Amino acid sequence: MVRSRVRLPARRGSHERSRTVKRLVALLAASVLAAACSGGADTITVYSGRTENLVGPLLERFTAETGIDVEVRYGQSADLALLIDQEGDRSPADVFISQSPGATGFLAERGRLRPLGAEVLDLVPAPYRSRGGLWVGLSGRIRTLVYNTERVDPADLPASVFDLVDERYRGRLAVAPANGSFQDFVTVLRERYGDDVALEWLRGIAANDPQRYPKNTAIVQAVGRGDVDLGLVNHYYALRAKAEDPDLPVENYFFPDGDLGSLLIVTAAGVVSTTEEPDLAERLVRFLLDEEAQTFFAEQTFEYPLAAGVEPPAVLPPLASIEVATYDLDRLGGGLERTKELIDASGLEGP
Fold it and tell me: What is the pLDDT of residues 146-166, one digit of tens each?
């Protein structure tokens, strides 16, 4: 409810003042009644690292179907996670929606998420939810190598992401070191193989004269123009670009044999531990996993729906046909700062 101040009218004749007072009393009574009705409405607060154009329509439909009002604060996932931790017991957030699993893992590690009920957890296959039951994946994106089909022979594509440090790829690769998904990939690389191996790979990429871009979108555009042959991106960027321009000469290459270069990264949701409305908060998470919401995610973003039984759009190859790499994403939470340190130390820091 929007609260407004009531301005008293200027002094007038007694009859007119009487009529004005009656109107004023009626107005105040209506305002009090509206406030009372609004005060009884259920409301939850969402901190969302996903953008308003994607999450907003779903939250509006949730309110229309349930009568539960939703207040939203949008921002970068990592920033919002830090804010929830800083707010501590005073945080107004009930639900956290994250673009990055690292931000969700951070909150889980800090004890800022509460366990979800089995009826919610069971909606998502085990590889795409928290082992401790603290969050669930909403949608998935796969790290991939986008290439220019007019400049690159598929036979020349690398068998592993580790091969990109080879001399034959010198000056041909684009990267976005400041991008959250790239940093999530490097964090998993560190966790799986150790900091030394991760730093060696980063230095190898940096020494191979890569083209640096601030975002994945810019990489796909550059590959499409022929400015650079290859780029490390999320799978959906090329699909979005081709939806706008079907003649764009770009394709995704998925690394084979479960190579880490084709890591599946999830967007996630969890209930904040200090919520005073746990049932309402969990109801929203469950809503985001129903078929209609999952289909909306997939059709709007070309990401993979993660709720069991929901099929991806026809433009996406089935997950079962791709040998994606998966990882215990709970372990991403504490490693982001160290990952950034290694990227900086490698000389690969972005523009």
Answer: 999 999 999 999 999 999 999
Strand partners, 271: 95, 114
Looking at the DSSP bridge assignments, the partners of residue 140 are: 266, 304
Q: What is the pLDDT of residues 274-295, one digit of tens each?
A: 999 999 999 999 999 999 999 9
pLDDT(172) > 90: yes
E runs forming strands in the chain: 43-48, 69-74, 95-98, 113-114, 136-148, 173-175, 211-212, 230-234, 250-253, 264-272, 304-305
Q: CA 286: distance to chain centroid?
A: 17
Q: Give yes or no on whether 43-140+264-318 and 141-262+335-346 have one common fold.
A: yes
**CB contact burial 233-261 (16+ within 10 A = b; e otherwise):** bbbbbbbebbeeeeebbbbbbbbeeebbb
CB-CB contact of 231 with 220 (8 Å): yes
The fold of the 43-140+264-318 domain, in CATH, is D-Maltodextrin-Binding Protein; domain 2 (3.40.190)
Options 3.40.50.300, 3.30.450.40, 3.40.190.10, 3.30.70.330; CATH of 141-262+335-346: 3.40.190.10
For the chain, the structural domain boundaries read: 43-140+264-318, 141-262+335-346
- Burial class (CB within 10 angstroms; exposed 0-12, middle 13-18, buried 19+) of 2: exposed
Residue 256 DSSP SS3: coil
Average of per-residue pLDDT values in the chain: 86
CB atoms within 10 A of CB 192: 15
**Model pLDDT, residue 301:** 86
Record the pTM: 0.79
Between CA 211 and CA 219 the distance in angstroms is 9
One-letter amino acid of 49: G
**pLDDT tens-digit readout, 77-92:** 888 999 999 999 999 9
pLDDT the model gives residue 19: 41
